[in-house]
Structures are given as structure tokens and as C-alpha cells.
Amino acid sequence: MMNYSSRPAEEPAVRARDLTVVRGTRTVLRGLRFTVPRGQVTGLLGPSGCGKSTLMRAVVGTQAKVTGTLDVLGHPAGHPTLRTRVGYVTQAPSVYGDLTVRQNLDYFAAILDPGRAVADRRRENVTRAIADVDLTTHADALAGNLSGGQRSRVSLAVALLGTPELLVLDEPTVGLDPVLRRDLWQLFHTLAAERDATLLISSHVMDEAERCHRLLLMRGGEILADDTPDALRTRTGSETVEAAFLRLVDQAAAQGRTKETTR
């Protein structure tokens, strides 16, 4: 395991400068500038349609028509050396319904770590990943017979197979019951604390902001704030992150009106 405490504080897991994405006639991301610190849980929060998924696709290197600078773990986003260092979980579970949980993971493990010589290592990684997401008792169940929340956990297990340094999770708790949401957030913090992983987690549920070390608050393709929950509450004089977010939205709207009247 790498000792990230020896890294310079200025070396983040993700660094964006003037990051812009244009889709047709619409600018989806507008000159974003932000960093994601290593070894922490960073929340990407904002309403549906504000550009969170587009930003995450840009980070993992699957988004087209990206301009500006976007460095991930010291390389340009999408660099071939990042394939085993970055785990990505989309909103829709990415598993095969006609395979069991273990067969799904065996398949993806063979892609990540091919060759007969490492078969024992692959089996160990599969068993560990299944245990990480608390699906050991469902390891031999068909993925298609699982609940939506359980399928989401299988997708997360796939992302954990290679013990990635950066995990990018697009609304991983949407639609889950409160107990499962709590358990997943406990897992996210365990990964950060015990495995030195960096997690970038999107959500439109503002109470999840309180569970993050750091927050990126988005609206309309722009970053409204890049700070800790405590700093945001203090800065806006708010009791909750949700109230802080709403205050920042109002401030941004007021600034926009001021600019319009001074033209």
C-alpha cells in the first residue's frame, strides 16, 4: 500500500483548469477550475442536469469534446496508464444479469488481470471485492435476480477489483434504502482511511454532503464552491450544507443580474 502522507500537499488526485464541454449548441461545463484531494471523499453535489455526470465522464476519459486541462493521478484524463488505477461506477448497474455475482466479477477480473499464472490472485481479489460490498451470501445468485440496490453493489465490487487509487461513483446511493445508504457511506470512508483511496462521489441529495471531507457544489455547468462542509457553512452563515448551497445559488443569481444591468 502506498503511503500518501509523503505526497506534497499540492499534488491532488484530480486537477482541472478551464475545463469546458460543449454538446451541440449547449455548453455543458463552463471553464471549471477545481481540485480533488488525495485520500479523501469529495462530494460532487448539485441538481439533476447540472453537469455532474458529464464531469465524471471527463475525469475517467470517456467524454468527447473536452477542452482545457484535466489531470488525473499525474496524467491527462484518459491516459492508458490510468485504466487500472481508476474505478468508475455509472448510474446504471453495469453487470450481466444471466451471470452470478461471482461469475460477473470473475469475468471482469480476467480482463483487468489476464493470464493463468495470476488465477489465484484474481480469485482472492474477487472474494475480497464481494466481501467489501457485503454480498458474500449472494455470491452465487444470478445478478438478474438481485434487487436494484444489490446490482449497484455488484457494479461497485467490479470497480474495486483492482484496488483503484481513484474511485469515481455517479450517484451510487440513488434509490437505496437508508440502511444500505449508511452502510455504503461507511464503506466509502473505510476505503479512504484504510486503503488510501480517493473517492469522487456525485449526488443530488444534499444531506449526503455532510458525509464528505470536501465538496464541489455545481449548478448550471459551473462550480459554485470548492471547500469543506464546515467552511461552506461558516462562509455563508448557514446551519446546513443545503442552506449554504441555496445561499450560494441566490448570490450567483444576484451577481448575474448585476452584470446584466451594468452592460
Structure description:
The structure is a single chain. With 263 residues, this protein is an alpha/beta fold. Helix content is 36%, strand content 24%. It has 7 helices and 10 strands. It has a 6-stranded mixed β-sheet, with helices on both faces. Strands 2-1-4-5 form a 4-stranded antiparallel β-sheet, with helices on one face. A hairpin with a 2-residue loop joins strand 9 and strand 10 (222-227). Helix 2 (101-112) crosses helix 3, helix 3 packs across helix 4 and helix 6 (229-236) packs across helix 7. The longest helix is centred in the last third of the chain and has 21 residues, at 241-261. It is globular, with a radius of gyration of 19 Å. Residues 1-8 have low confidence and may be disordered.
Shape: globular
Number of extended strands: 10
Regions with little confidence, pLDDT below 50 for 5+ residues = 1-8
Element pattern in H and E: EEEHEEEHHHEHEEEHH
Provide mean pLDDT, rounded: 88
Strand order across the largest sheet: 6-7-8-3-9-10
Query: Helix proportion of residues, in percent?
Result: 25-40%
Quote the distance from N terminus to C terminus: 56 Å
Number of helical segments? 7
**What is the CA-atom radius of gyration, in angstroms?**
19 Å
Structural class: alpha/beta
Essential attributes:
single chain, 263 residues, alpha/beta, four-stranded antiparallel β-sheet, disordered N terminus
